[in-house]
Amino acid sequence: MDDLKYGKRNKRGDWSPNEPVQTAPLFQFPPRLRALLRWIPHYFFPWNAIFAASAVAYWAWVIPPVERMQTIGIGWAAWLYAVNAICVLLFYGAFELHLYVLKRQENRFKYNGKFPADQKSKAFWFESQNIDNILRTFLSGVTIWTGIEVVMLWAYANGYAPWLSFAENPWTLALVALVVPIIHEFHFFCVHRLIHTPFLYKWVHSVHHNSVNPSPWSSLSMHPVEHLMYLGTAFWHLILPSNPILMLYQLHYAGFGAIPGHVGFDKVELGDDKLIDSHAYAHYLHHKYFEVNYGDALIPLDKWFGTWHDGSAEGEARMQARYRQRKEKLAAREARKQANGATE
């Protein structure tokens, strides 16, 4: 597969797409009906359909009987942790094996031409990004994921969360299912902006940003506080007219859905002529520049708040202009402080 048909590679070997990143047409005004109709299949396939199917599969084969979940017990909580850990190992591991271990598509479509395993850094445990990311994923990520899952299932089993049946409320639940990705986007953007404040960035979010060159295991490599805030998207279902399957979908959208944004490749090759878009470039630019693209472009929140970078030269110019403006404000503030100090 010739990736230069779709993008370009610089002297360092970094690849970027030819076309700027586009936000979804869902919130564009006036509405562009033709663009919206072309986009709708991409809203469901492949990623959202996978996460929704995994939630249904969990409910059918993994989640304990309701009577058992009325009391939180070590047995069924440990069972859920084991299943979550195995599924994360298989799902994340499949991308790691295909793209980073076997390197079946070498560096075709890879944003950063280098591979994390080839670079040692003291920012990581054992100076290894992969070991650090894997340990943080299983020690903290899957543990907090499971804890939230257990609490939410206990709440449903005891009537503390609204549990609607599909038979009696098909349209309400269909609507909630449709907006699960939108809920995630809104929650993610708000949490993400919060943890980029100086104190939380230094002590919490910097752990995730150590992976400047993200790979699959970077997806859930976070500080425990960030894990709780990020995976806490499931808590929206304590107030939404919902049910446990949709709560699991919300949780899986966050847990398994972190993979596409951190896979490090724009497209994943399946065979000689089949490509799957990761839609990861917007979030890759966030890892590269830190202060752009706090959301994932489903809702144009970054455009509304002036932090959007689409990968184009114009996007780069807007970012640099914002940096200059902020630097000038800080310099003016410091000058005022010095002037006030001199007059006292």
From TrEMBL:
Q: Does the keyword Transcription apply?
A: no
Locate the transmembrane regions by residue number.
Answer: 43-61, 73-95, 138-157, 169-191
Q: Which GO terms describe its molecular function?
A: iron ion binding; oxidoreductase activity
Q: Which cellular component, as a GO term, is one annotated location?
A: membrane
The name on file for this protein is Sterol desaturase/sphingolipid hydroxylase, fatty acid hydroxylase superfamily
Endpoints of the signal sequence = none
Write the record's keywords in alphabetical order, separated by commas.
Membrane, Transmembrane, Transmembrane helix
GO terms under biological process: lipid biosynthetic process
Please, which domain of life does this record's source organism belong to?
Answer: Bacteria
Asked if Isomerase is a keyword of the record, the answer is: no
Pinpoint the Fatty acid hydroxylase domain residues.
178-307
One short Pfam family name for this protein?
FA_hydroxylase
Cell compartments where the protein resides: Membrane
